[in-house]
Amino acid sequence: MARPREFDTAQALDAAVQVFREHGFEGTSAAMLTKRMRIGRQSLYDTFGDKWKLYLSAVSRYSTLETSAHISTLNSKENAFEGIRAVVERVVAEARMPCLGVNSICEFGVRQTELSAQHALAAERLRVPFVKRIREAQLAGDLTSELEPDAVVDFLVTTFSGIRIAARGGADDGKLKALGEIALRALR
Amino acid sequence: MARPREFDTAQALDAAVQVFREHGFEGTSAAMLTKRMRIGRQSLYDTFGDKWKLYLSAVSRYSTLETSAHISTLNSKENAFEGIRAVVERVVAEARMPCLGVNSICEFGVRQTELSAQHALAAERLRVPFVKRIREAQLAGDLTSELEPDAVVDFLVTTFSGIRIAARGGADDGKLKALGEIALRALR
DNA sequence: TCCTTAGTTGAATGATCGTTCCAAAACGGG
DNA sequence: CCCGTTTTGGAACGATCATTCAACTAAGGA
After folding, report:
1. What domains can be seen in chain B, in order of their start residue?
2. Residue B165, SS3?
3. CB A70 within 8 A of CB A126
4. According to the model, what pLDDT value does residue B168 have?
5. Orientation of helix A100-108 relative to helix B149-168, angle to 10°
6. CB-nearest partner of A170 from B27, B110, B168
7. Phi, psi (5° rounding) for residue B147?
8. Which residue of A has its CA nearest to B106?
9. HSE of B122, CA atoms in CB hemisphere, 13 A
10. A179 band by pLDDT with thresholds 50, 70 and 90
């Protein structure tokens, strides 16, 4: 068996994620993709099917990684509230890079079933550990007990979207930090 | 002077706004526009220049109308806090229709100067009356005085974006209402 | 009725798009 | 060195894109 240089599929997919984050699906051409992925045009089609399938793969990869990052940040602190704060701070810190989740929702709404399914999946995966830590923080008295944990998750996720839009619109870091703080304040 | 049926420019522009709200700039074709605007292709180019200029006109018109609607809702109540709540409720009620402001920011970020300029303009036009009413509500004790009015405006606008994204992603009305309430609660 | 003006529409332009076919190139194991 | 596998890139296809030209229709005022 002969094996010339095989390219790293995951690495190529990561590059595709970057392009889609920046330019969306419609704004991205096959040429832009092959250039950034550093693979030939034919390899792209052989490996990922077509542009739409590649987009779905990119969204899937992105939301898997992003969700995992959220969860591990959430659990990175002993104290539950501090874990939640750390997630907020992470979102603020990374807000300058466009979010593929927000972008894909903006671009397609609920028109593409496969896309919506992925969003729902990621949301659910996020919800479970978040609810857990929110309850914890409520018991510790760091979060108000007036709010349902589920509602708190929804509010946090919504705030994340808002912060990301603000960042994409050019808001400076100070403003983004302030937004995160007010959001946390809302839950006390 | 002879005058055959002239079409209503503002009405046509409103139709264009609708299409762009739903499909974005890249996702909208000239054919989609002429169909919904109910005008001939050539009339489109004669009247609005080209697709990009039409898009800018649409964004401009949308943000002017939307800003005005926000302001008049804000001032529709005697009580300042009730005015602010009314704005939140209006955003929630209309969130099912995509927001052209959010969409254009998502699609272009800060790459298009003319677009960013329009966003900045609308934001400033909104800020002034909002700050006024926020101060009023703070003096009345309905809003916390711990927060800078400017920060409160930023937070509200950010929350609006978040709610609109949530709605575009398929969140039901109950969830959207809850999000609005938590946001208001944050400011007490 | 005829002219002027406004709007429409078919045809064409040139660009770019996604995608496929295919031949050549690159490369590692025998 | 050659074989087999993987990747590449030119060429081409058909579709669609934004946009323009020019001939057409429609309608109100003279």
Report:
1. 62-185 (1.10.357.10)
2. helix
3. yes
4. 98
5. 60
6. B110
7. -105, 145
8. A103
9. 24
10. very high
- Two tokens, residue A150: 């589920």
Retrieve residue B42's tokens: 């050539």
Q: Is the CB of residue B137 less than 8 Å from the CB of residue B81?
A: yes
Interatomic CA distance for residues A178 and A184, integer angstroms: 10
Structure tokens given for B23: 């499909």
Per-residue pLDDT of chain B (188 residues; tens, 9 = 90+): 455 678 899 999 999 999 999 999 999 999 999 999 999 999 999 999 999 999 999 999 999 999 999 999 999 999 999 999 999 999 999 999 999 999 999 999 999 999 999 999 999 999 999 999 999 999 999 999 999 999 999 999 999 999 999 999 999 999 999 999 999 998 99
The answer to whether the C-beta of A39 is closer than 7 A to strand D is: yes
Q: Which residue of B has its CA nearest to A110?
A: B169
What is the count of residue pairs from A and B with beta carbons less than 8 Å apart?
125
Q: In this structure, what DSSP letter does residue B50 have? A: S
3 state SS of A169: coil
ipTM of this complex prediction, to 2 decimal places: 0.93
Measured in residues, chain A has a length of: 188
A121: Cα separation from own chain's centroid: 12
**Residue–nucleotide distance: B34 CA to D22 C1' (Å):** 20
Q: Which residue is nearest to nucleotide C4 (CA to C1')?
A: B2
Pure H helices in A24-145? 30-37, 41-48, 51-74, 80-94, 100-108, 113-139
Distance in Å, alpha carbon of B12 to nearest chain A alpha carbon:
23
